[in-house]
Fold each of these.
Amino acid sequence: MNIFKSTRIISTCVVLACMIAAGCSKNFLTEVNPSNRTTDNYYVDATGFESLVTSCYPLLRDIAQQRNLNFQGTDVFAATGWGPIYFKQSNPAGSALDQFDVRLNASLGELQTLWDFLYREINRCNTVVTRAGAVTGMADSLKNVRIGEAKFLRALCYFWAVQQWGDIPMPLVETTSASLEVTKSVQKDVYAQLITDLTDAVSKLPAKQKDLGRATQGAAKFLLARVYLTRGWNFAGALGGTSADFTSSLTLSDQIISSGLYPLETNWNNLWPLHNINPNKETASVTTSVATANASKEVIFAIQYANASSYNGDPSVGTSTVGNDMHGRFGGGPSGVAQQSRTSAYNRNLNSVVCTWAAYRLFDPQLDSRYNGTFNSVSYATAVGSVSLATNKPNPQAVTLNFAVSDTTAIALPWNKPALTAAERGVDIPGGTKKYSVINANEYMGLGYLTGTSTAVVDNLAWGAPMFWKFFQPGIAYGDGFSTFNDPMFRSAEVYLMAAEAIVKGATGAKLGTADVYYNIVLDRALGTANAGKSPQRAAAPENVDDAVTNVVSYRATAANITVDMILDESARELLGEGNQRWYDLKRTGTLLTRAVKYNPWMAYGTGGTPLIATKHLLRPIPQGMLDNSNPRIDQNPGY
């Protein structure tokens, strides 16, 4: 069996000769390739080689949309709401990636899917590198650029793989024949190869590319900076890292900043699709809504969804991902009251993850523009409708509410501005006066339960939590994909935060000053001109939703108070849901076992209230398919 499948880009024509046709001379299953094109005679000139390199980009869509492994089981995301835990339901069940129980094993489908996609992409890139020397009719300068692109993409995939699984197979040439023999490379050798590949890519890639979405020198420097930063932490002493890696990461970060090619947007919201909080009043079209965001110079590398069909998803993997699905995967939808069903007004919500309480409580909702840019806390009716409260439990009322289009149906209040009196609440709460539901933060995801009982609450007016609004694009067809927003994998705000982290870890030679200087540049952009320099307040105990709203702490950095944890808080606010990166950030910094258990209720619960996450979970199990299809059988990671 071919473990690393070779890429066959050229379509072959399969002629099925009809057996009942008179004079038919071909067998029913005869395959005919009328163009006589194969990989061996097509990838030999400029035209063929260009199509080969272009074919290395589409799979990034499918890889990036495998989000569960990198967002579930972290401090800011979980697979499902946490009401069952908070309201003490018996034997609540969450995702294996949140609870880390026996279900997290080699048979988990997400592991196999990601593994297969990564190695399929790696072999495409290997094909580019292997065949480049024999290509004719192409200038060496352009050929070198394309080799640089392939090495960048290969390094990106190996970087994801080595962080997930540790010691991994690392083929560096095209696989053209079937083999069951698989050899693992140790992590330090993988990191050494990443640095070699990316250093070469930096030397070959131009500062700008004519085609949007192609790798550039800035993208290669960004990834190299992240690789050095990760190796510097030297996970389990296995990466070959030293303190010098932090300085290397900082140097590259400073080069990206000083290049001037990737300036921070003045307005953080310009990075995201334009949309009206009330979809009934939307004026942006599917095209105009993403025009500014997709053209942002802050974005260093993005997976393309608005460009030509050559960047579409790959039908050969059976998914043919043709659009971005970020808008519907991060939790929340409008209140179910007076909503049109299955329309594009709020589009489709097929949630993979929802925010934890801590994710909301890390923001200052009043000063920090990223709170209202990330979350939509108001739901509006999109159709004429009514709701009866007669069947509510435990507070049935002989009340029927009628809604017109654009009427408010629910408001989810920010954590630090709760409704303190009954009169401030909706009529679904005894003493409430509002026609719409008013939800306090300690009720997010939780109105379906009564404290300490198994009796379900019925509230026909209620809503679960603020919608994750950051990626929403208006005007797209109803469905789980089809968005034309380009997925920003790398942007310069993260460069500043990487630099701050490297300095905290001992990097020297910073061009802008101490770590807090880099950090506060990102923060002040989020606060805006009017609030720049102010000290926004987050909850001092983000995990405790019942804590007093007066128990707060500033998240402005100083040279004296900045820490890795503070930087992780800021990266959560700045980058929430981006880049499939959160699990990697927590693993890199050695905080997965502490922050995730502290802030993710499912991880704290584990089983019966005992957290199950352990050191072994810092590496994923090798997928069962890889184990079964290797001979001799490769070793499973310890503890699985």
Note: The two ends are 25 Å apart (CA to CA).
Amino acid sequence: MRRLLLSTALSLIAAPVFAEDAALLLGMDRYLTLDRFSGGTDITDTADDLRNAGYTVDALENPAADAMRAMLTRLHTRSDDAERLIVVLAGRFVTDGKRSWILSVNAPAPTLFGLEQEAVSIESVLRVLTNTPGKSVLMLAGDMQATDAFGPVLRHGLGALEIPQGVTVIQGNPRSLNRLIADAVVTPRADIMSAVAGSRRLDIDGFQPETLVMQTAEIPVTDTAPRPVIVDQQAEIDMWEQAKRTDTEQGYRAYLREYPRGAFAIDAANAVAAISSEPNRAARLVEDSYNLTRDQRRSIQRDLSILNYDTRGIDGIYGPGTRNAILNWQQENGFAQTSYLTSEQITRIDAQAARRSAQLEQEAAVARAEELRLDRAYWEQNGANGRKPGLRRYLDRYPDGIYADQATAQLNQIEENQLGRADRADRDAWTAARNRNTPKAYEKYIKDFRNGAFRDEAQVRLNALRQDQSNAASNDQARAAEAALGLNVLTRRMIEGRLSQLGLNPGPVDGRFNDRSRRAIRQFQRSRNLDPTGFLTQSALVQLLLPSGN
């Protein structure tokens, strides 16, 4: 059903400051993922009758959850001065047995912790209705016989409602509720209790007095004779196009005031509801006006990452990760928490990131210098004499150290010399174990040659392989995290070039990460107090490619 009544348009234009009565009609029949609820939007057909009876009426068909909440918020505000309140909700309901919700048209299959996003609490609606006890009616139209379950907790329908004192709740199908409104709610001196008692399709709960009359006064008689309406279609189109260009609530309301029954009244009323329900819309429009390029957005994401605000990627796309990072930055820097940036904030973030980058560079240089000093000192104390125990101690302490290659070469030479002196069986067994290079092979050598010439070396290699196995899961995670960055050959070359500038000797700048590249990455990570996995993370990449002065 695609029809929005004049009452909706008028109510969205300008509600009186002190409304005496208020009505809210929300009807859903088309769900994106759930079954259709036939006739759900029919409940808006009574909007004109309620308006003529003196109610300020909000009516929407197939609204999203934000629009539903916005209308209920307006109803809550109006209820402070209202004498009568009518709420009619038609659509699909879900309950956990104690609480109940009406689902918006965008609702997926309900989950207990996902209802806040795409549903509205019936208990919250009931609390609003307590403002006019004795003259508050909640009407609910849904498939109350459905028994479909959503997991172990939720099911279709309504639970046991805790109805506040003075609030009347009536359930029925949309047609029966429409008839009740026309025949009893808006009819002068008509009794709702008698009308419900005379219908087999209506159920009533909550406040049930002997008589319940909502319309005590006569409805003023107006001249309803049709009059010719002359509409300048081009003027209407021009005003509508202007409203769309400005895309403001004021513009859409101006259109509705001029053309309450216009060709675009539905779209205008829906736009007003959407705008009024969007938080921080003005801030979003300010950021949108900058027309930031994707590269500019990437730059902002890099700046935020340098400042330790996780944007969950540097791709120029502002998703929940980036918006949350902006929100956290705004909170810590004393700005309104909108998650949208102003030009002042962009400039400040860039300046902060430049200072932080320079600071990181300085800290890394100090840390690297100290590491090199300790590395050289340890080499002089242990490895410089060229003896096997000292060389091994050095490599255990500094596997990526300045003299690691030299120590490894010397140990290999020592091993070759031992091979020449070992007896044939020992030599052959060790060569076989070394070629297999597995824990099982080294364990077998140690068992078979308890006094073998290579027993110590076998134990060292066995321990290293076991350590590698214990680190395999974390290494796989680190490798997967780097793969997720999607580094191309050009970016890898930039990384190797930067590592080379820092004196970390990554090997050839060819975009191919080898053992030397991994060692250089580990050295860089140590200098920045990052986990030295040898695989790049988003944080390491940002720090590596954003030197001071950027």
Note: The chain is about 50% helix and 10% strand.
Amino acid sequence: MKLTNFRLETSDDAIALLVWDCPGRSMNVLNAEVIAELGKAVEAIIADAAIRGCVVTSGKESFSAGADLATLETLGHQLAAQSKSEGRGPAMAKFFEASRQLSLLYRRIETCGKPFACAINGLCLGGGFELALACHYRVVADTDKARVGLPEIKVGLFPGGGGTQRVARLMPTPDALQMLFRGDQIRPAMAKAMNLVHEIAPVADVVSQARAWISGGGKPVAPWDEKGWRAPSGKVYSGGGMMIWPPANAIYRRETYDNYPAAKAVLTCVFEGLQLPMDSALKVESRQFAHILRSPEAAAMIRTLFASMGEINKGLRRPAGQPATNLRRIGILGAGFMGAGIGLAAARAGLGVVMIDRDQAAADKGKGHADTLLTKDVMKGRTTTAERDRLLALIEPGADYAALATCDLVIEAVFEDRAVKADAIRKAQAAMRADAVLASNTSTLPITSLAGNAARPEDFIGLHFFSPVEKMPLVEIILGASTGPRALAVGLDFVKLIKKTPIVVHDARGFFANRCVGAYIREGHLMLTEGVPAAMIENVGRMAGMPVGPLALNDEVALDLAWKVLQATKADLGAAAIDPAQEALLEAMVVKGGRLGRKNAKGFYDYPERGAKRLWPGLAEMQKHKLAPDSLDVGDLKLRLLIVQALEAARAFGEGIVTDPREADVGSILGFGFAPFTGGVLSYIDGMGLTAFIGHCDRLALKYGDRFACPEVVRDMARQGRRFYDGVARAAA
């Protein structure tokens, strides 16, 4: 039997070792070829009377990253083609059978009558972990690199290889639902506590321990196939069950607002599956999986959060011909929260960090912030004291710009003031090596104008990090008018090194992300001035799919910053460039009321020392008009909050600020949380259909003003029957 992705080894103890090792890949993934080979190997093991059991492990540092989602996309394309040639019914039957092949294979392992043990030596996710769950015994390596989990929900799917049924039979129902809904990666100790694995062993011993379990008479029967087995939380239709399912349904609706069909499918699979024998339960899961695999939400999320993000992280925008950089040491100008966060991210990547501020005390404070963040990780068990101390030793705080002479890249992160930044840039340039790149972490000021203070504008670039740096995965790389390809390559390589996702945009006020975020916040402001209740604005924002309402978001980024940006825009572009109603609201909040947001514990919300934040009661008094909630169309409010962002993205695309819809979509989800189920701002327009989108814009423009005017780029595409992603398809072809 010839195997390409596996090695089947036998030994004198009659226990087979099946080693998963996909050639030419850094990680093992499941695709049609791998599944077919695994099936062959399993049948060979079952048929060989000389083999009494099998240990499944990996030949790589990790066990498996799960399914190759491109394979699942292919199934959808095949369905469309077969529907045309064979009819919808026969095509759907084939699609269903194809989509459940992995589930059937795993059930075959589980019921074959021979013991299978899984030796998990590292990361084990998705379909790879479902393989482990189908084995009768699981031992995981005691290493920080080892994680198990079912993260499919994060790309609009759910586990379709038996994961929903096995997890729901291994632990109490509430814990199972939480695991399936969150899609977290779980550390070994927690995995054992959750009953997901049987044992933890040193990485060098996982195979021998799995083999020992089989030698010791390991039983080849899953607990749920034993006579008399009972679910951990009892029957669904019982007193205990009724304490679980109504709250679970309420929590699902509160957290998703029915925007995520995969989450609803998880509820269905677990609810129905726990009432059925395992084989019937797996068929329920497979039917739901086939349904979700065809959903527009899954298609959009897979394309953006898997395919597009993968292409971006692999160097989609790296200029051709530029040699790989060898960054070893970076400089940070400004040791505030942003500077300290960037410095810590660089230290985590193994880089030396020079952190400069106006004096030693200010620089030390920045390192102290990094210390605080790392200490929190120590307290939560995410790192060790020794690792914290090692990372802190890489950060050198000081006030002398001369220390920048050893740096390969210097990032300016001082106060958002043109004069302050210009002074820092000039001082840094005087101290830096001639071949070092200088970057600015500005969030609003045009890079081209800041580059005027640099001796070498071609080596000056924007690196816009999002706050808080330690949590936000996106970096906007901004090209000034003179930015050269080497500076872009260095910027992209640095972002990759610190394990964040870059999008490349051209220079403009607000760049890309902040333009869209600003539109969202402004719409919340204007709704408030119209008389829409503040609580309704916030709830509708979350119903639309945003992580927080526009007023809460403004509190996070600071009201006084919004006021300063508004005034700077007015000074640069004239009074017609801003909305007077928004200006009046921010003036009342910031200038007259001293309400700056979360940073001074009072903004649109109040932030008591103890207890949760709450909307400031004074907002109602500020509204000259008050609209009755029952008189408002929630659907219309949701459309306003999403369309206003999509419009700004379309304008940025038309102006050449963002040039690739993949970057616009990935940036919108990672940067400001634009409704992930849509696939991002431009996928939202494509998914709605350009003609329908234009119709909504025209209606909203008549009712609310020119901010809803549809840009000509969208109208042109609609007339030509094109979409934003048509250009991507042609480029790929």
Note: The first strand starts at residue 6 and ends at 9.
Amino acid sequence: MSLDRGIGSWVTKQAFLNGDRIALVDGTGVRSSQTYTDFDNRTNQLARALVELGVRRGDRVAMLLLNSITFMEATFACAKLGAIMVPINVRLKGPEIAYILADSGADVFFYHDLLAAEARVALQEDGVRVRHCILDQITVSSPSSSSSPSPLSSGQSLDQTTSQVPATADEYNDINYESLLSSAPSQPLGMDVDPRDIHAIMYTSGTTGRPKGAMLTHANAIANARNVVLIPPSISCADTTITVAPMFHIGGLGVHSLPFVYVGGKNVIFPTFEPQKFIQAMADHKATVQFLVPAMWAAVSRVPNFDSYDLSSLRLALSGGAPTPLPVIEFFQSHGVPFQEGFGMTETAPTVAVLDAEHVVSKAGSIGRPLMHVEARIVDENDRNVPVGAVGELALRGENIFVGYWMMPEATEEAFKGGWFHTGDLGRVDEEGFITLVDRLKDMIITGGENVYPVEVEQVLVRHPDVMEAAVFGVPDERWGETVVAAVVLEQGSKASTEDIIGYCRERMAHFKCPTQIVFMDELPRNATGKVLKTSLRRQYSGIEQAVTR
């Protein structure tokens, strides 16, 4: 057996305990399913191949990958050799991808052929030092073949960030993924990966307008898996989930994708989300446990003939990433689906609290109670506990809490003042221990499960030649939870239109970050010190003051 004490050992141990069980299923049918023995052998091969490329413990391996078996193989191959995976949001534009490549110092870059256009842009930017590019073909054949369409053709649009013509490894002397993997033997490396080693840098938006890399250790992932197992009804090797929430996010990766390997369950993986095909997959594969973000659950609830799909195997439906509208919860409960809500963050790997099915309606608006191995406090500005019912900042402690922000010691120190992780969320706790978030210290917007920080959008807006000032805020949206709105003051004499400004943003940012509405103003509302009053803007255009509502 391997000496590995990190999460790479999960695959090896499951191959020993449950080697013949199915670990991974390609929902598109492009690739064969893998048993845990297959999974272990292939991750051993990939780990050895990466070592031959010069990858060492602590080196960063970036991944611009859609949900896929390749994503899981790269994740666990990195874990086995002690390298650090850096997942990248596939909806980002080239310059945004380049920032993460440069900031992380990634040496190796995995990407899918359908994401080649933005990958190529990123690789040409200053500061990027990638030495090896590894290209994985996710398409069955060329787009001209009518018999074998791309798996994306039936899925949700990726904001047109994918290349319309899939790339090939020969075009830029990239390394073909399957060729690389098959070049190495399947014997284990036998490395002793310390649980304190960093296994992933997950980038999350920051108030400076640049993403921050949250450093998650193997110990964090192990603690998170234990937390997930303790969410009733607990998961086991007998469970199946449809992995469709994006794994480049901590929710898609950490809620079920990684914990399912920990317990030896089955991951059925789809690269994109299309509600009707998804619910059909749940029925076909007899999914027992399922995680989605609220916008996805809402879309599923609108599938015609919902009751015609056999979801009788489903034991747990979990929503997270944003507040779930009460009508959506009530819809699933009325159809016999056991629905729960969870709360987590990138920095917490991610599980923190769960609002169980028993209380999901009676305590609607709450994030629930902290999980077994998570400590939570509501504190004032002096880090003193506030009384029950009083508002303060949510502070957390536990083995699932990250160890800091990559190359940002000051931000790390600020986040961990007093030895507790300060989340930036304002909330209160009731007599039964249920926590309700009422606002955010930072004005983050959550749209369709994606985090958007206004300052990042504002920095793009003010570079528009006709924009003098801009203030970005979120307002409630029935479909996405929140939508991005920009209040804009134009330069004198400008005739710029809403379409002009939104189009400008869409050329420079992922579409989910871009405003869906532009409010033209003569001046922005400010307080006596000149600070823009976003609470006033939210109240004026949505009738609420909070950045996040439940």
Note: The chain has 15 helices and 26 strands.
